[in-house]
Amino acid sequence: MGNRQSLMAALQVRLDAIRHSDQQAALLLVDGGRLKKINDAQGMAVGDQVILQIAQRLQGFAGSSWVVARLHADTFACFLENPGSTEDALDQAKVLLEFLAAPVVADAESVPLCPRMGMAFYPRDAATPADLLQAAEYALQGAKKSFLTPCQQFDFSQYEVQKRHLKIEKALYELMDQGVVRQLELYYQPKICLQNRCVVSSEALLRWQHPQLGSISPAEFIPLVEGTSLGVRLDRWVLSQVSEQLACWVRQGVSFPQVAVNLSTAQLTQEDFPEWLAARMQYLNLPPACLQLEITEGAMISNDQMAFDLLHRLQHLGFSLALDDFGTGYSSLSYLSKLPLDELKIDRSFIMQIAHCGRSLKLLESIVALARNLELELVIEGVETAEQLELLQPLGAMKIQGYYFYRPMKASDFTGLLSDSTSLMFF
Prior knowledge:
Blueprint: H1 4-18, E1 25-31, H2 35-42, H3 44-61, E2 67-72, E3 75-81, H4 86-101, E4 104-106, E5 109-111, E6 116-122, H5 129-145, E7 151-153, H6 156-178, E8 184-193, E9 199-210, E10 214-216, H7 218-225, H8 229-252, E11 258-262, H9 273-283, E12 291-296, H10 297-303, H11 305-316, E13 320-326, H12 333-338, E14 343-346, H13 348-353, H14 358-373, E15 377-381, H15 386-392, E16 399-401, E17 409-410, H16 411-419
Parallel strand pairs: 6-7, 9-11, 11-12, 12-13, 13-14, 14-15, 15-16
Antiparallel strand pairs: 1-3, 1-6, 2-3, 4-5, 8-9, 8-16, 8-17, 9-10
């Protein structure tokens, strides 16, 4: 059986031969799916037997015109020249996948397999051997991540999204490494008291204007760094900028409300974080209570006990803690009883539905009652209309955050709002 080098040579010859015809070709990449688990549990000798049997099955199944090669570990390639229509090629791939899925016998034991397959077509998806292999590899990665679709075709639109994400991640690393952070800017969105319409707190929100990629939404770039060391660095940059802004307001004699900052999942694994933040605030002569740290349920699920311990340390140091996006994801009530929380932020999805869904309103009323019983402050996100505000009015004291009152604004504009006491009342 050939290897990657012989596969690329064969692809070059085969593609050159059909380049000026109307024929298509398909490249299938197959992954056995469980090699690491088999090696860890039963040893590499058993793993080698599994690889050998997968290879034998592929050679036995392959047609006379197929090119079969082993790329690495339990990943194999099959090149099908002129397989008929795309549907015909897909049918062959599915039959092959079922054939490979049967358990193999290694070291006198039945070993189950969980094969995955990625497919790319010439000339639809790529025009060169290298690009065709890359497209098939991308499709295989998608199949390995999916439980429901073990065989996937190359999707150009998804590939373009992934390429953009890689560019964004690379650009963000460069910003942090080079200290060239002028592309990043913090905006502040006020939170309003429902009863008297005063600005009572705010949230710092990150914005990024890239010279080539344009305006990049936090909804796009934050998930790319969540749970990584880059997320930790970005968090601390934001906290440093926010604390500098708070100190600036103190020097200017501007009264300011508490400012909330979102924490990444990875930050909750950093043992030094509470002391780092406390030292930062002490250096600027700022009370910890002027900062609120927002976490999500997902961050707690990822880290659990370590995160619980770290949050207790933060609260002991005087920082306010809020659970963000409550009502999405798992919404486990057990977290409300265990977490050292000061505030609960109800996700905007509730407010979007209450105007036309009575059950959503009743559920929101129950969450409000629960928060009050636990002596938690309450924030409703995403309020954009007078109708939504009217429905919230009977629910009692709470904070409102949304476009109906204020959109996120630059620090200079927020300073102006804070400096003008009459602007603290909504007209």
